[in-house]
């Protein structure tokens, strides 16, 4: 499926080959790198480094969504993410995504230069649908999550995992249409680790290509996640090989965007895979 997403300022994001979304957490408590880039200058330097390593999208988030994570007040989230987005935009014309569920943060991030709203709650929070409807050039990523971050891992259950997630996406796509949001703006993320146990996550990995039926771009976010730690008995900083295997599998199964911490290594894996599939020019 040839996929191009239109973005603000007349730009386009071509997804004919998988693009790498580099994670920029401006938080003190994210599961993998919480606190490392909490200061705005550190976050911006990390963001620019990820671009040099091969990221084409930067995903800036100011609220941890790890299991059990506490809520962050809107004012605090704004203080964390808006200066970072503004500084990145001053340095680069790259694609910037804001990882938030709050309508006001979405609005201010778009004004600051964000091109994509990446919402783990799929625009279900008050005002979110109304805000993104006002900015028709901004892309939207809808993620599936069962429950909320504080409780999502408390015995998640499904009648049928893939069927249930598809039903959720269908409902959220309809909600977007009802608010005048063009379907071609949408990206879908099945939500590895969000309200899913170990068996669910690997079923989802094996069935990732099922979501191609929506004929919309797909995002895979499984970098360093506990699905690898629990399977392999590896700490967060020991999950690189597993994360790369997951990224490659998702790319092979139709992922258009791979959201990762380890950009350079993921770029190398995808480059080798692309050369094997398409050849190289000598």
DSSP strand tally: 10
Structural class: alpha/beta
How are the strands of the biggest sheet laid out side by side?
8-7-6-5-4-3-10-9
Strand content: 15-25%
The CATH architecture classification is Alpha-Beta Barrel
Low-confidence stretches: 30-35
Radius of gyration in whole Å, from Cα? 17 Å
Helix content: 25-40%
Task: Please give the count of helices.
Answer: 9
| CATH first level | Alpha Beta
CATH topology: TIM Barrel
The H-and-E topology, N to C, reads as EEEHEHEHEHEHEHEHHEH
The overall number of domains is 1
Q: How would you characterize this protein structure?
A:
The protein has 282 residues and is α/β, with parallel strands linked by helices. The protein has one domain (17-274): Alpha-Beta Barrel (TIM Barrel), CATH 3.20.20.20. 39% of the residues lie in helices and 16% in strands. It is built from nine helices and ten strands. Strands 8-7-6-5-4-3-10-9 form an eight-stranded parallel sheet. Helix 8 packs parallel to helix 9 (263-278). The longest helix has 18 residues, at 74-91. 46% of the residues are buried.
């Amino acid at each position: 499926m040839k996929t191009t997403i239109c973005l603000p300022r007349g730009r386009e994001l071509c997804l004919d080959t998988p693009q790498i979304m580099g994670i920029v957490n401006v938080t003190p408590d994210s599961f993998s790198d919480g606190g490392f880039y909490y200061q705005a200058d550190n976050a911006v330097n990390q963001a620019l480094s990820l671009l040099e390593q091969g990221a084409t999208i930067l995903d800036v988030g100011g609220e941890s969504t790890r299991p059990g994570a506490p809520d962050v007040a809107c004012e605090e989230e704004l203080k964390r993410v808006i200066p970072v987005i503004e500084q990145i935009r001053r340095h680069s014309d790259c694609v910037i995504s804001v990882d938030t569920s709050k309508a006001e943060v979405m609005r201010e991030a778009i004004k600051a230069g964000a091109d994509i709203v990446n919402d783990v709650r799929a625009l279900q929070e008050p005002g979110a649908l109304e805000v993104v409807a006002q900015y028709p050039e901004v892309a939207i990523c809808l993620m599936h999550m069962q429950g909320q971050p504080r409780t999502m891992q408390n015995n998640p259950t499904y009648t049928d995992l893939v069927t249930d997630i598809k039903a959720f996406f269908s409902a959220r796509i309809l909600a977007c249409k009802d608010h005048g949001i063009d379907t071609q703006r949408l990206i879908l993320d099945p939500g590895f680790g969000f309200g899913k146990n170990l068996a669910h996550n690997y079923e989802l990995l094996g069935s990732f290509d099922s979501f191609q039926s929506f004929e919309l771009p797909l995002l895979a976010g499984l970098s360093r996640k506990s699905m690898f730690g629990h399977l392999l008995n590896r700490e967060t900083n020991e999950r690189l090989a597993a994360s790369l295997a997951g990224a490659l599998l998702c790319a092979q199964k139709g992922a258009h965007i791979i959201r990762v911490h380890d950009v350079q290594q993921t770029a190398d894996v995808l480059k080798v895979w692309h050369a094997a599939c398409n050849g190289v020019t000598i």
